[in-house]
Amino acid sequence: MNKLISAILITILLSGCAAYKELKPKPEINPVENGFIQIKKEDKYFKLKKDKKYYMVFPPAMQSNFYLVLDLENKDLIKSYLTETFDQGKGRIIEIPDQSPEPDHLSVFPISDDVPQYFWVIDLVKQDVVLKMEYRYVSRWRFAFERKYDSFKQTLTENSVDRSPYESLGTTVLPEDLDLEKEISQIKEKNNRLAGMRSELGKIEEIFPVNIRNTTDEAYQNYVQLKSDLEDELAFQKKYLQVLDLLKKERQSRGDMEQFFTAIPDFSAFFNAKDQFPTNVVMSIRDVLKIRLNEVAPYYENKFSQKNDANRIESFIPQLEELYPAAGLPIGEDFKRLGAFVRAYNKTVDEIQAAKKRLQDITDKVNKRRQMPANTFFSEIVTQLSKLQYTMPKVERPALKPYKSYRCVQLLSSEIGRLKAKINALLKKYRRADTLIPKINMLKDQNNIRGILSLLKKNKELDFLYPMYQSLDQKSLKTQAQKVRQALKTGNWAAAEQALKTLYNDRNFINYGSIKPQKDKLVGVLQDSLILNIVKQSKYQAEKFISENLNTLENVEELYRNPAFLPVYEPTFFAGNQAKQRIKSLYAELEQLKTLTFPQKAIKLLYGQLISNPDDRGVLKARAIVAHGKHYKGNDSTIKNRVAECDPNIPKLLTRPKEYRRIFALPVSTNPDGENEYLFKVNLKIPSPAQYPVYDVYIRLPKEIAQQAGAKQWYKNINFNGETIKNEGRYTITAPGPENNYECQVGPLQIVKTSNNIMEVRFNKSAFKVYQISVMAQKPIIKKH
Amino acid sequence: MKMTSQKGFVDKKYLFIGAGVVIAVAVVLYFLFAKNLKDQIVIPYISHQKPIMDPHIPSHIPIADKLDEVLYDGLFNISANPSGITYEDGLGELVGIDANNVVTIRLKPNIKWHQSFKILLNKDDIVITPTEAVYFIANDLRFTLKRIQRLGSLSPDYVLVGQAVDNFDFIGPDDNNEIRFKFKGDRIWTENDIKEVLSFKILPHTATYNQLNYTQGTGPYMYAGEHKDVIYFPKNPAGPANISRLILQPFIDNSTFTTELSRGKINCLLSTPFGALSPILRDSTEFFAKSNISNTFFAVFFNTERLNRSQRKALRSLINNKKIIERFYKVGSKQQRHITDYKGNYDNYDDYLNFSVFPSSSYYVEENIVTPLKENPQPDLSVLPDTVKIVTCLNYGFREELAELVQILNDPEISHKKIKALAVSNKEIKSGNYDAVIVPISNYRSNFMFDLYNIFLRIPDFSVQKINLITDSDGRGNRAINVNSFQADKNFFRLDATKPSPERDDIVKLLNYVYTFMSTREIGDKQAYARFIDELDQQMALGGWLFSLPSLAYFSTQFDPKTIDLYGVASQLSTIEKWREKKK
Q1: Cβ–Cβ of A750/B522 closer than 8 Å?
Q2: Does the residue A657 lie in any domain?
Q3: Domain contains A153
Q4: Residue A683 domain-assigned?
Q5: DSSP A506
Q6: Site from B157, B187, B526 to mutate, A interface, most A CB atoms within 10 angstroms
Q7: What is the pLDDT of residues B179-225, one digit of tens each?
Q8: Is the Cβ pair B199, A692 closer than 8 Å?
Q9: Helices in A31-123 by DSSP H: which ranges?
Q10: Which ranges in chain B are annotated with CATH 3.10.105.10?
């Protein structure tokens, strides 16, 4: 039961949706172009019920550019539209716009021949109504033209111009009688309207079917006639306006020749087409023109006499010379003379300009050249320039003669004179250059750059040569730099310095201002190079000297006076403070080699040798070390200590108790084959918590020195802080012997904590060698027993 | 006058005969009933000056310090042989010293303290019975070191040890009973140096720090006690001594010492009156003598409260020690007291004259560290009071010598009638009632350890030796002298640094000098301050430094002279364990 009810409801619902009812006229819709046809179904009108929806199918047009025109009664009781696709109101509906000019009863829908069918849809019936409607398939041009044909004819009629003044001009109507302004204004207004009509007709013509032209279609024939009438009127109005315009320009330019001249093209155009105008009109215009042409020659003569330059004369004379014959008017003598003058004058001006251009070309050839010229370069230039001089224009022309008093003619003459003078001057210079170039080229072959530059600088007026030789500046720098470098290469420091100085002072350049930064930079580089070479060579020399003399044992003092420790060359010229500082630094570096490196290396080497084999010329090595040490200004305590070790006059520091320190006992006399006095000193600077420290000094002697101590005092003298120490009183000096490993104890020695405490031991020995002695100090202990 | 003389002569003749008979009888009786001294060493002492047994503090009683070698051992002991002093192993054995100055000592095992024996003294009979053995251990050494450290400069051992071992301590012992001392790295320590430093005497750790007497030791003789002031020291059964006992025999004073020796009541006299050779001991078959360096000197200390500086200078000039010593030894008279020294010099009295607080025999003068002014300027007697009262007390040793000096000083030829010398009671001296006082300085050491406390800081009391040393600590182990150490009633010179006086600055300076001299471990400082003190004394004129006594000992030929070695500054009893009786 329920299923039955549902089925019924669905059916009702679906039947409610299918609200559009198709109206099928009989006879069927015929798409042939024709007049209006009534819509009926078997002679009956369709009845439309309120709130029902309908549609009607229309076939497409048989050609393009057609309208479907529907004419309805009671159009306001329904709401309808035309669409290409329709499916019971479903989907998207695209309504074709209604282009009806009378929408209250007409619907005009553009249709084409490429759509299967059109649907006229009534989607609203406001009340029950009988559909009284006619339809028509009509081409669009026809629909448009038919609807405006009457209007077009009226427009043409209303805007056509009265032709009688035109046709009577010069006879019954004189130009002076015409109200030109008004006439022109009215014609233009009409002309504009007719032009609008022409445009509308043109649009209609655009949609003519292709086969219409050879038909006798009435509407088309009407169109052709209307169009022809329109074109005729427009052509008349154009010519009439042309004449009126000429007359107006002439009338407006009276008293103003220049304004009149602006109308010459119009007059020329008129007379060139004079066949298109009636004779009365042509004669009338000529008369007007003739009057004005008589004013031309006096006007121009006056104007030219006031011309204050030598430029071309710009005038309407050439156009006027053409207008005269075109207008059928004879040319007067004064005008002919004037025309000849203008042509001659302008020709002369043109020739001057040509000469100037030629001159410019020649000078450009010279001035724009950037390469050094060959010997014949200026010969050719001179030839060209001479030719130009020879062909210079002249003012002595017949046509100019009547006007020779004119300022512009005189100026023209002056212009020619200046040009000549310029050419002459250039010729003179170029001839000098022609003479100079071979000399320069000769110097060039000799690579004498400075000679060339000097020659150029002497001929300053030939400045056009500078750009050609501009590269010489670079070349000069390069040559001078090469000279410096060559001198450096051969170690000729003086020559290098002189060349550098010459370069520094050299102002002999084509473009000194431009080259100066580069030259300054080069001078800096070369100065650096010179200094660097001096520095390098000086250091090499010093280092070589050092390495060769590390082993020198005699005359060591003399080594330090050797010039090897001076710069190989002492420059006096400095382009900058930096170079001066570098030489100053070199002195410091050489001084460092002398007072640091040399003594340091020598001392290290000799000391190493001395330690490894003291018996091999030990005394000489020790003395050499001391000599080196006098010149050592370093802070290396090792070096200083080694020097001190080898200098018997320098007390050897004992800074730690109980530690034996090896020291050298060295002869202070020089008797290689006999007895010598030996010396060693010890400085007791041993930190002690005591306020008044006391130390015993233990001297461990070589057996060679101490072995006879039992028979003879081994020492000559022992001093402590200037006081002789003897084995008596509070002091004890023990005898060295085999039982105590040849050790001698001296003490107790009270030291002063705040000062040096020097113990000096001298002994004699028949030898000339280095003795190694060990020395130790330690405090005695307090004994109870 | 003559008659009287004749009559007197007759009376005296009978008197002499009678006396001779009595003496003869007495001698016979003596030899018949005198005790036999066989296997004993009998040394006299002043009965009311009992020796104080303390190995670390010097004593003014002559025999006291000598007993240190009898009762105690150090890790190493000082001994002597004919060539000089030697170091012998005591309680330790030196293993060695390494590169880091670490000294390794092996402590000897099985060394017994004297308390390991029960000693019964019954009158003069001694019975020794072994009891539970108490052995020497490392703790005894540690206790001893701490005691020395606490004593500070009062003990010479403090300086001795302190110069080598900062912390007065050691590491160990290890399984080998070895201990290690970290010696200072400022010198090369020889074996002898190490043994010297470690030669201080060792007490048992069971002792306390401040005992009056330390009777327990490990030395060759043991303290047994005393009976009727006779003090007995039997041989340590575990020790090496050859003679069975050492006896200190009491006497009233030293005047009869030579007689007692000659009578055989003693057999060892370590110092003769006046240090002179004794005519009654000339028989070399009965006695032999041995000299060593002086250890006693006499000085006149000026009372700075009663005499101003110029007066003291005048008094110093007035006291001519050369004249006095010549009188003292009766030079040029038949009663001349002859002397000799260990160098073999004879009657060289001038060598004993002193010109400084440092005796001429001392290291400081001998080695010219101190150069005393020997020239004696003419005294300005005008500045002196009418009479300068110089006193002394005869009851506490050196009675003979002091009495002689009193007599000499009263001689107008010596005193220019300006001096009144007299013997007074000890109480009188304590009260400071004197212008100057004659004081014997005994047991002085002539080496580095010369004791200035015993001179300047000794409380003015002949009966005791008490040093008034007051120091302050800075809390970091450093000590500084306190001026209260110099108070007028606390020293013979009546020096007072606590009260304002014109001389206060010098007094304070002197006190600082003395303290630095005594406490420094630096030999250089010791020398320097010795010089400063001498120079200051030359300005302040604190005393007249008369002369030293020769040190001469007599021994009975009961002993073999070859076994008794005295040398230089070594203690006279340092080789007592080697003494032997002469084989007959």
Answers
A1: no
A2: yes
A3: no
A4: yes
A5: -
A6: B187
A7: 999 999 888 898 889 999 999 999 999 999 989 899 999 999 999 99
A8: no
A9: none
A10: 292-549
CATH number of the domain where residue A700 is located: 2.60.40
Q: How many CA atoms lie within 13 A of B36 on its CB side?
A: 2
- Distance between CA atoms of residues B327 and B401, nearest Å: 11
For residue A432, what pLDDT band results from cuts at 50, 70 and 90?
very high
Query: Closest Cα of chain A to B369: distance in Å?
Result: 7
DSSP state of A651: P
Residue A3's pLDDT is 45
CA distance A551 to A598: 11
pTM of the predicted structure, to 2 decimals: 0.58
Token readout for A568 is: 């190989």
CB contact under 8 A, A784 and B196: yes
pLDDT of residue B575: 84
Q: Which CATH superfamily is domain B40-267+558-578 in?
A: Periplasmic binding protein-like II (3.40.190.10)
Instruction: Evaluate if residue B159 carries a pLDDT over 80.
Output: yes
**pLDDT greater than 70 at residue A585:** yes
Put simply, the answer to whether B368 touches A730 (Cβ < 8 Å) is yes
Pick B107 or B395 by higher pLDDT.
Answer: B107
Q: Same structural domain for residues A113 and A183?
A: no
Residues A136 and A34 placed together within one structural domain of the fold: yes
Q: Are residues A47 and A69 in the same domain?
A: yes
Q: For the domain covering B292-549, report its CATH number.
A: 3.10.105.10
Please give, rounded to a whole number of angstroms, the shortest distance from the CA of B220 to a CA of chain A.
20
Portions of chain B given CATH number 3.40.190.10: 40-267+558-578
Select the residue of B160, B367, B368 nearest A782 (Cβ to Cβ): B160
Say if residue A269 is in the same domain as residue A317: no
Instruction: Report the pLDDT averaged over residues B508-518.
Output: 96
Find all residues with CB under 8 Å of A213, minimum gap 6, and list them: A220
Kindly state whether residues A302 and A398 are assigned to the same domain: yes
Q: Based on the domain organization, do A198 and A265 belong to the same domain?
A: yes
B156 neighbourhood in chain A, CB within 8 Å: 784
Residue A17 has pLDDT above 90, yes or no: no
Mean pLDDT, chain A, integer: 90
The domain of A387 spans: 296-469
For residues A458 and A381, state if they share a domain.
Answer: yes
Q: Which of residues 437-456 of B touch A (CB under 8 A)?
A: 445, 447-449
- From A641's Cα to the closest Cα of chain B, the distance in A is 23
Question: Which of the residue ranges A27-36, A53-62, A131-140, B18-27 would you say has the lowest mean pLDDT?
Answer: B18-27
Show residues of chain B in contact with A730, CB under 8 Å.
Answer: 367-369
CATH of the domain at A78: 2.60.120.380
d(CA A260, CA A252): 8
Q: Is the CB of residue A142 less than 8 Å from the CB of residue A63?
A: no
For residue A667, whether the previous peptide bond is cis, meaning omega lies within 30 degrees of 0, is no
ipTM of predicted assembly, 2 dp: 0.79
Length, in residues, of chain A: 785
Q: For position B21, what pLDDT does the model report?
A: 60
Task: Tell me, yes or no, whether A304 and A283 share the same domain.
Answer: no
The pLDDT tens digits for A364-377 are 999 999 899 999 99
A628-639: per-residue pLDDT in tens?
A: 999 999 999 899
Our count of domains for chain A comes to 4
| Spatial separation of the C-alpha atoms in residues B126 and B105, rounded to whole Å | 36
Between chains, do A691 and B528 touch, taking CB under 8 Å as contact? yes
Q: For A170-195, what is each residue's pLDDT tens digit?
A: 888 888 888 999 999 999 999 999 99
Residue finishing a domain among A469, A501, A534: A469
A784:B85 CB<8 A? no
> What residues of B are in contact with residue A750 (Cβ under 8 Å)?
524, 527-528
Interchain pair B78, A785: CB under 8 A:
yes
Q: What sections of A576-656 are H helices per DSSP?
A: 577-592, 598-612, 618-631, 637-646
Residues in B closer than 8 angstroms to A784, CB to CB, are 156-157, 160, 196, 199-200, 445, 447-449
Q: What does the pLDDT read at residue A552?
A: 94
Q: Name the token pair of B265.
A: 């009541």
Q: Is the pLDDT of residue B13 over 60?
A: no
List of residues 6+ apart from A541 with CB closer than 8 A: A564, A568
Q: Any idea what the Cα angle at residue A313 is, between residues A310 and A318, rounded to 5°?
A: 160
